[in-house]
Amino acid sequence: MATLTTATASGSGALAQAFTLKSNELGGQLTGKQYFNGMGFSGENQSPQLYWENAPKETQGFAVTMHDLDAPTGSGFWHWVVFDIPADVHELPPDAGNPAKDLLPEGAVQSNTDMGTPGYAGAAPPDGPAHRYVITVYALGKKLELDKSATPALVGFNIHFATLAKASLLVYGQKH
After folding, report:
1. Which residue among 7, 11, 20, 80 has its CA within the 20 to 30 Å range from the CA of 149?
2. How confident is the model at residue 16 (pLDDT cuts 50, 70, 90)?
């Protein structure tokens, strides 16, 4: 299931193509690749392959986040926070969230997750109902100019004021 943001073409009144986020790896569920390797899970701790289309022409860069809405924390759990992705980039390969592999485009910054470190932190939901993971790409009107020590809340605050459009994928994950 994907949430799409639409925009109108400037001055024409016609609908522009919808800004969309897609993945060749994900359907409605996380795969074993996106789960954590630890805490009772034997996943591969890999961020998913993602690509996006039809960003607003004013886009100066992108940010990508992954948030567990159902984590038992009172505020969810940020699994991945990437920003200052150059405007000419429209795809992240599988495992781009692994800082040791250097798969992100030059200039992109992975900041701290709720694990307290930069990079992708795989899903590890506790026993119980499936958790909802929202993966969002933001088309930004400016560079954020934060560093990898920024907290998810600080990055989110800055993303809020720079967002031109956003598109999300909703996927589910559950401990089996």
Report:
1. 20
2. low
Rounded to whole angstroms, the Cα distance separating 149 from 97 reads 15
- At 135, list the tokens: 């993966």
Which segment of 14-23, 48-57, 79-88, 122-131 scores lowest on mean pLDDT? 14-23
Q: What is the mean pLDDT of residues 161-174?
A: 98
Q: What is the dihedral of CA 65, 55, 8, 17, to 10 degrees?
A: -110
Q: How many CB atoms lie within 10 A of CB 10?
A: 10
| 3-state SS, residue 152 | helix
> Token pair for residue 72?
């038992």
